[in-house]
Design goal:
The chain is α/β, with parallel strands linked by helices. The chain has three domains: about 150 residues, no CATH class; about 160 residues, P-loop containing nucleotide triphosphate hydrolases (Rossmann fold), CATH 3.40.50; about 50 residues, no CATH class. About 45% of the residues lie in helices and about 20% in strands. It has 15 helices and 13 strands. Strands 6-7-5-8-9-10 form a six-stranded mixed sheet, with helices on both faces. Strands 2-1-3-4 form a four-stranded parallel sheet, with helices on both faces. It is elongated, with a radius of gyration of 28 Å. The termini are far apart.
């Protein structure tokens, strides 16, 4: 079965380009690298030697760029495999700035042609967005299909969308991606260009295609609006009996679904492939205080997430917008831990989701060597796979909830009111229970929304 899948997989040549003229944002790994370089320079001075300042200044950025670029390249290869491609070869080019015609330049283009001939690959995947003219030029010169980063991510989303809502959102993103690229076919296809050969009655093919896509976009948006309307109705019914929503967010493949299953036993798909979760999932979860919450699993984020996806998936991410608390699930074993955190925060900023309480969850702690674990700070260390640290996480959620605060109330309940006792036992933690005659004296610690329903039984003594 495995061999059949490999035989049916498309063979792809991956092309990664790093533009050395662009400044990169510093992550904590970067700062640590520079700090280590500075300490090394200090030690050289202590020995009475003059350090080569030019080499020191140049070596550190190169090392930093390599660290970031290697992680980006590994991520791109995983994207290709998640799309069902078999990686035939990976080419890397470093250049000061992009070539306006082909992104990579004539020399690298000839090298790609040679690799295609020797490997028999079916397509070329670029880890960069291509302009319409670059895409057209590359397809004219290469004997196979050319796909850029956004198209690749859209294809993965299309493969994993299961619900009607997810499929509509993917289609909307694809249509919005295609629309500006119709103009890349040349001015001769548009009557708006003017001049010889462009005048005449009727629509050109370009204008017909553009009109069809615009009509389809409007239709998909209408269908998505009906989905939002149904979701709003469901949310209003939920809010009639207020249950706080806690949403899992994080970088793709950080282990959100595995953690979701560990907490709720929901049995949703767990996969090492990127974007395995597209459709939002809600499950009820009881906290140590007996309070109930709704836990939401959401789509993962990634660096350079296409803007069309951010806008198209707003319906899915509404649960994140409505959540009282966000659990930022991070892969503690990733070498790019801090950069991935920055990317997630950037996407949350694009969605205007700011000011919410965030609990940092350092997942996959079982993959971190024991001697390195004490260095991980600023979050709750857990393993969704091994079910480590889940009690600490649930306690942290309990402490962070403010919408339905925990209170402690003393009750004096007639034993004939067994239903009241049962409701308190089901939704609160009972302390100091004792019976005197036909009365039950209990101290209950639980959510205010529950305990305030039985104020007439309060023990005011």
């Amino acid at each position: 079965m495995r061999q059949d899948k490999l035989q049916n997989a498309e063979r792809a040549v991956l092309v990664a380009v790093e533009f050395t003229g662009q400044r990169r944002k510093l992550t904590s790994a970067v700062r640590q690298a520079r700090k280590a370089a500075a300490l090394s320079a200090d030690s050289v001075l202590d020995e009475g030697n003059e350090p080569d300042n030019e080499k020191t200044q140049e070596a550190t950025p190169a090392h930093i760029a390599d660290l970031d670029f290697e992680a980006s390249l590994a991520e791109f290869e995983e994207l290709a495999r998640s799309a069902g491609a078999e990686v035939a070869a990976t080419l890397v080019q470093r250049r000061p700035r992009p070539d306006p015609a082909t992104l990579v330049g004539q020399g690298k283009l000839e090298e790609i042609e040679g690799i295609l001939a020797s490997t028999g690959a079916d397509l070329v995947l670029f880890d960069h967005d291509l302009t319409p003219s670059q895409l057209r030029n590359l397809e004219a010169k290469l004997p196979c299909r050319v796909i850029d980063r956004t198209q690749l991510i859209l294809d993965i989303f299309a493969r994993h969308a299961r619900t009607r809502e997810g499929q509509l959102q993917v289609e909307l993103a694809q249509l919005e991606y295609q629309l500006p690229r119709l103009a890349g076919r040349g001015k001769a296809m548009s009557q708006l260009g003017g001049g010889i050969g462009t005048r005449g009655p009727g629509e050109t093919q370009l204008e017909t295609d553009r009109r069809k896509i615009n009509l389809r976009i409007d239709h998909v948006k209408e269908q998505l609006e009906s989905v939002r309307r149904i979701r709003r109705q469901q949310r209003q019914r939920r809010e009639a009996v207020p249950v706080p929503v806690v949403a899992l967010v994080g970088y793709t493949n950080a282990g959100k679904s595995t953690l979701f299953n560990a907490l709720t036993e929901a049995g949703v798909l767990e996969s090492s492939r990127m974007f395995a979760t597209l459709d939002p999932k809600l499950r009820q979860l009881q906290l140590p205080s007996r309070r109930k919450i709704l836990l939401s699993d959401t789509v993962g984020f990634i660096r350079n997430l296409p803007h069309t996806l951010v806008t198209s998936f707003r319906a899915t991410l509404e649960e994140v917008e409505r959540a009282e608390i966000l659990l930022h699930v991070r892969d503690a074993s990733s070498p790019m831990l801090e950069e991935q955190k920055a990317q997630v925060e950037r996407v949350l900023g694009e969605l205007d989701i700011t000011g919410k309480p965030i609990i940092e969850v350092l997942n996959k702690i079982d993959l971190v060597p024991a001697n390195e674990r004490p260095q991980l700070t600023g979050g709750i260390a857990v393993s969704g796979l091994k079910k480590i640290g889940l009690d600490d996480l649930l306690a942290a959620i309990d402490r962070a909830l403010v919408a339905d605060p925990l209170i402690r109330v003393k009750f004096r309940i007639p034993q004939s009111k067994g239903a009241v006792l049962a409701a308190l036992e089901a939704g609160a933690v009972l302390e100091n229970k004792r019976f005197e005659g036909n009365l039950a004296f209990v101290t209950a610690r639980g959510p205010a929304s529950l305990l305030n329903r039985f104020t007439r039984f309060r023990d005011r003594a």
